[in-house]
Amino acid sequence: MVREVAESCVESLLTEIVSQYCNGFYANKPDLAARRIEAIGYQVGHQLSERYTMERPRFSDHLEAIKFICKDFWSELFKKQIDNLKTNHRGTFVLQDNKFRWLSRVSVAPSSENTGSIQDPSAMAESKEAQATGMYLYFPCGIIRGALSNLGIPCAVSADISNLPACSFVIRIKA
Amino acid sequence: MGWWDVADLWYGGFGSVKSGIEEEWDGSWDGKWDEIGLNFVAPRSGDAIFASVERVNSELFTLTYGAIVRQLLTDLEEVEEVNKQLDQMGYNIGVRLVDEFLAKSNVSRCVDFKETTEVIAKVGFKMFLGVTASVTNWDADGTSCSLILEDNPLVDFVELPDTCQGLYYCNIISGVIRGALEMVSMKTEVSWVRDMLRGDDVFELHVKLLKQVPEEYPYKDDE
Q1: Which of A62, A129, A152, B149 counts the most CB atoms within 10 A of its CB?
Q2: How far apart are CA A93 and CA A157, in angstroms?
């Protein structure tokens, strides 16, 4: 039987690391805080993907690995699959979760000029809330990057929340 | 069947209740009986609450916590500082979690500290971590005891390297208890006595009640 804990345990940890790193250690250095939160996610993704692929043959190509993230990996984490997968056939994949669980209790009102992309944290510095949401998203971005890196795929991952409650993760595989 | 005639009901007593259309009713009813129940807000068991809350695979939780501890060790360098930080994070979580706990458990005011610790062990631990603790080692005046945890999802797959000997890996739990109790007016001191990561057979938390702060209402009568 799969061992479970209350979802609020994970949410509490997530809230707390974001608040510790953003308000405590690196209050005036959001980029440093972001890097730490991403690093924690990376560690988690790396280990989870190690566990979930133990009994599988190696993935034959990038697409197979990405599909694994969308289906099995996402289901283990969020009890649902990614809803939509797109690619430009040049190493970029967009994974859309129509109702991303970790944002369901975060309230944000993205303004029109703010796309909600977390690639440039300074761009959303004007809105504390948007910044906090951006910070939360470094964690799942790190998880995806860690999981793929464990599968031998170095990449960069960013998130886009311009379509709340949907959330898109953009994976750029390094050539 | 028609409406009950209230007067009949009153004067006839239970033996000879008659309906408004003057028929004897033998108590039979072909329709559906609904159980109403009298205790509408009974406290719920830890098992019942855990079964009803949203749950996640504990690996995600365990590994996330492990990664946080690891990152803190890198950033803060001193093990003692990490212990403090974990306790502080736990405290903040406890302060917030107590609302969820009270809302979901329907627990009413505990009569004494003994009942409080029992509720933490049997309901609190269960509804969040899916395990229960036991309470032992009471002192004579009932203000300090031990919570024994034999199974702890926080330490699945964890082994401490020699460089972390002074680390109280589960310090977040003691912080949560301290924070949550402070929200219900109890100042406590919570510390680890036994730790499975240090070779003990169980986890043992010592909980000491320092002060029971009388509840302060947020308003005064003349305001």
Answers
A1: B149
A2: 10
